[in-house]
Amino acid sequence: MAATVPVLLGLLALIDGGFAGFRAATGRNARIRKRRYYLLAARRGYGVGAAGLGFVALLVATALAVSADPVPRYAELVRAGIRLLQILLPFAALVVLSLLGYWLLPMRESTFVILVGLGPFTLLRPAVVLGATAWSVLGSTDWLVWAGEVTAAVSLLAVEPVVHRRWYRAPA
């Protein structure tokens, strides 16, 4: 469990970064064939998300390296990560189900999936991230848990605006 939690959180952050890059580019290109454009946008989001994730990992690793007793601090981080996953995994599962419906259903039904699933989930994403962050730090008095979780939430929510401002400010 000690290694699984950070790996799952990292995977979720990287996948979210790719989708955030995609979202930053949507509606900015009037071309018909946009596959390469969207793949590049997803890679950019993935890169920005990886940079944020690297910063969080560096913060945590440095704090644990200089800590007098790193084992209980890491255990506290894992407990906070489990609480984070209690909210993020069900949300991610709903998003994946919506995406599958969008890709697999006929056009009319896939449009409905966007209206009732993907659209609202995109709007709820910041609230879910902030709520999961609040839930994860609940009861922890360790500054590293608070700093790690808040830094991770900020870096996760910053991917889309950073990618949008850096690469997709003007329409293509």
Summary, kept brief:
The protein has 172 residues and is mostly helical. The protein is 84% helix and 0% strand.
How would you describe this structure in keywords?
single chain, 172 residues, 84% helix
Model description:
This protein is mainly alpha-helical and 172 residues long. The protein has one domain (4-167). The protein contains five helices and no strands. It has helices at 4-25, 35-66, 70-104, 107-137, 143-167. Helix 1 packs antiparallel against helix 2, helix 2 (35-66) runs antiparallel to helix 5 (143-167) and helix 3 (70-104) packs antiparallel against helix 4 (107-137). The N and C termini lie far apart (45 Å). The relative contact order is 0.18. The model has no long low-confidence stretch (mean pLDDT 92).
Q: Which range best describes the helical content: under 10%, 10-25%, 25-40%, 40-55%, 55-70% or over 70%?
A: over 70%
Order of helices and strands: HHHHH
| Computed CA radius of gyration, to the nearest angstrom | 18 Å
Report the count of strand segments: 0
How many H/I helices?
A: 5
Count of domains: 1
- Residue runs with pLDDT of under 50 for 5 or more positions: none
